[in-house]
User: What shape does this take?
Amino acid sequence: MRTASVKRVTGETQIELTLNLDGSGKCSVENPIGFFNHMLNSFCKHGLFDLSGSIKGDLDVDQHHTIEDTGIVLGECFKKALGDCAGIFRSGFFIYPMDESLVQAAVDFGGRPYLVNNANLTGIPLVSLQDGKEGSFQTDCFEDFWQGFVNAAQCNLHIDVIRGRSDHHKIEGAFKAVARAIRSATEIDERRKGSIPSTKGIIV
Assistant: This one.
């Protein structure tokens, strides 16, 4: 079973996650940001990853530290669970339609981190109601999350919103597209027979 647990404690955040790459899509993470929790649930459901743990951060400042550091910890979990990447497909691609939005994602766990984010978001926070109080999701943190993820996972990721109106749909479509692309990339390729998917013989 390909699993990993990572804990990150700083003066700004306290995050602990456990990932099972070969799960069934269960997400049980204590997450104080409602919309972000919805996105992690969607990511797990569509990638068939199991994720558990807790997320705490200095939300009295804003959401940036909490969301970015969660991306870092999740990326570290993937890096740790994949090990030397022996036997996996390594790269994956998916186009996801989310109502009026259409999002494509491509990923390569080739050892070199790089993010291309063409999400075309408005930057206007999504407003919600949490425990009787008004809450929000800072849409500018979307890129922060994925930048943290690719840096830690040492993969390159391209996210392109082909079209769309709603920031909610663009972001959710992106999380689902990335999940499916990562699922394709990290699944075991039986024809590879456990070999490293690189002409170098090592993922660096």
